[in-house]
Amino acid sequence: xxxxxxxxxxxxxxxxxxxxxxxxxxxxxxxxxxxxxxxxxxxxxxxxxxxxxxxxxxxxxxxxxxxxxxxxxxxxxxxxxxxxxxxxxxxxxx
Amino acid sequence: xxxxxxxxxxxxxxxxxxxxxxxxxxxxxxxxxxxxxxxxxxxxxxxxxxxxxxxxxxxxxxxxxxxxxxxxxxxxxxxxxxxxxxxxxxxxxxxxxxxxxxxxxxxxxxxxxxxxxxxxxxxxxxxxxxxxxxxxxxxxxxxxxxxxxxxxxxxxxxxxxxxxxxxxxxxxxxxxxxxxxxxxxxxxxxxxxxxxxxxxxxxxxxxxxxxxxxxxxxxxxxxxxxxxxxxxxxxxxxxxxxxxxxxxxxxxxxxxxxxxxxxxxxxxxxxxxxxxxxxxxxxxxxxxxxxxxxxxxxxxxxxxxxxxxxxxxxxxxxxxxxxxxxxxxxxxxxxxxxxxxxxxxxxxxxxxxxxxxxxxxxx
Lengths: 94, 363
Ligand code: SF4
Ligand code: SF4
Description:
The structure holds two protein chains of two kinds. Chain A has one domain (15-88): Orthogonal Bundle (Arc Repressor Mutant, subunit A). Helix content of chain A is 39%, strand content 23%. Chain A has three helices and five strands. Chain A has helices at residues 41-49, 56-66, 71-87; strands at residues 11-13, 18-22, 27-32, 35-39, 91-93. In chain A, strand 3 and strand 4 form a beta hairpin. In chain A, helix 2 (56-66) crosses helix 3. The two termini of chain A are 16 Å apart. Chain B is of the alpha/beta class. Chain B is 34% helix and 13% strand. The longest helix of chain B has 17 residues, at 202-218. Chain B starts with 10 loop residues before the first strand and ends in a 12-residue tail after the last helix. The site of one iron/sulfur cluster has 14 residues of chain B, from helix 11.
C-alpha cells in the first residue's frame, strides 16, 4: 500500500485533525492525535482550500490563480504536502 | 549564568483517578494507589484545564486508572474543549456505554485511545484480570467506530504476547484504528513487580522490530504504527519525555504535579499540588521541575558525553530505580557502570517463568 493523490481525488481533513492558532507560541498548528505540526504559510494556504468537496485538481487551480504561480509547481508542492499528511492518517483522499 | 526559561508544556496527562475495573500487571500506576476520597473535585480539575490552556498546553490526555470511573468525565471533557484544548480519552473501554460515548461526542471529544490487553478473550481477560473484558471492549470499539471517533489502539507488548503481534495489528485494522501504538512494557509502577513475568527476550524484541517495519510499509496510508522498543535490550537510553520537565506535565489523582507519571518514585523531590499553587509557578519555578533541566545536574559519564543534548542522559526514574540515584546515567546506557548488570538481569528475567502479579486497590 502506498499513498496516491490523483487530480480527481477529493482530499478531506479527517475528523480529529484541526488547525489551531497557538496564542502562547504565536504560530499556527495542525492538531492531530498525539501530534502538533507547525503550519507554515504554504501549508496553511493549501489546507485552507481543502474542504472535502473540491478535487485536488480544483484546489491546485485555485492556488495557482490566487498566488499567481505555475500550476505544475503548485501541484507538485501540494501533492507532496498532502500525501505526507495522508501517510500520517491526517488527510484522506476520497 | 542563569538557565534559559523553559518552554511552555505541550501536553498534559490528567490522571483523573486510580480506580479501574481491570488489574493489569503492567499498570504504570504507583504501588500506593490513591483512594476515591483523595481525588480532586470536578471544579478543581476544570480550573487546572483552564490554567493549562492559558499556559500553552495543546493536548490533554484524560487518563487514570480508568477515566470512565469518574461520572463527571463528560463535564470535564466539555470544559477542556471549551478552553481550546485537544481532548484525548485513554480508556480500556470498561465503564463506557453507548449513552456515555454519545455524550462525549456531544462534548466535542477529539480522539479515543483504547487499550488492548490481548488478542482474544482468553488472553485479554487473563492479562487484564477481568472476565468479559475483551467482549465488552470489542463492543465499545464498535460504538466508537459508529460514532466516528478517531481511534488509536494501544497494545502493551511483553514476553507473553509479543509472539502475537501480527494478530494485534490485524485487530487494529478490524477496528478501523488510524494509529496503533506497539509499546513494549516499561518497568515502572506495578510492572516493576512483574519483571520476571513480562520481560521480553532479546529475540522477541528483534522480531518485533522486523514485524513493525514490514507492517508500516504494507499499511502506509492505512495505519500509522508507533513503536516503543524494549529499552532493556538497547545500548542507548531513550530521550525520556524529551528531557525532564520539557514537554509534558502530569497531574496525579490527588493533584500532585509531576514531570512524568513515574516521578513520584524520586522521594528526594517535593511535588506541589495543582489545587494549592498556580500551575505556571510549579512549571517554571518549582525545585522539582528544575531539578533535572539543562545539563548542570549531570554526572559522568553523561556530563562530558556529546550525546547528552540528544538523550538528556535517559530516564531519571530508571536511574533512580536501578542506580538508586536520580541524577545518575540511565543504566540502559552502554557507558553506565551498571549497564552489564542491567543486561544480565534483563536476560535472567526474560528467561524466567513467573506468574502475573495483578494490580490491587487498597482496601
Ligand atoms: S493499565 Fe490496566 S489496570 Fe492500569 S489503568 Fe490501564 S486498564 Fe487499568
Ligand atoms: S553517557 Fe549519558 S548522555 Fe551519553 S549516551 Fe549515555 S546516557 Fe546519553
